[in-house]
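Same chain as my last thread, 207 residues:
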Amino acid sequence: MQLDSQIVSDIATLEGIYGTPAAASIKKEVAYIHPHYRKFIEAAPFALLATSGSDGLDVSPRGDPAGFVRVHDEFTLLLPDRRGNNRIDSLRNVLHDSRVSLIFLIPGIGETLRVNGTASIQVDPDLLSTFSIDGKPPLSVLVVKVNAVFFQCSRAILRSHLWDPSKHRDRGDLPSPGTILGDLSNDEIDGPKYDADLPRRLSTTLY
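reply #2:
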């Protein structure tokens, strides 16, 4: 198979392959947070944040109790940046290019919600304190100004069987974090110790 033999390189060819989008796929997009879409955001405990920086693109998982992304008004979302690994890839990217995209997922629900907009990094202590969990505020909050919101149909979730417990994999089927880190660091990081310490570290450092 030649992967470079039939590359699509223009819009006309691409549209010829896929045809005209259905009316519903156009009508569902709005430039604000409609009350229907607000319900999806407030029910979602998990989102993917896409950003663009000088070194390329990045997608970062974000999760907290449902409604962790706050609807400030119909044009603004507030996303707390919780404790992590301090790579701050997403935040670095926002400083380079303010454009962001979000996909919200709700366990058991087939439809996802997509949001496009621009973001800024807010560190006002009063705002941060309103997002405190266990007495610990986030170090920053992304203020997302929305310019497009629409739902994605359930086909991807149905095809992937994402919410089907019978399709869930055993964690032991895949390399552990310690195994990966030990191999990639040529054992500079003690993999077995990393794995042994991980459950305690996760339980004590979520916030």
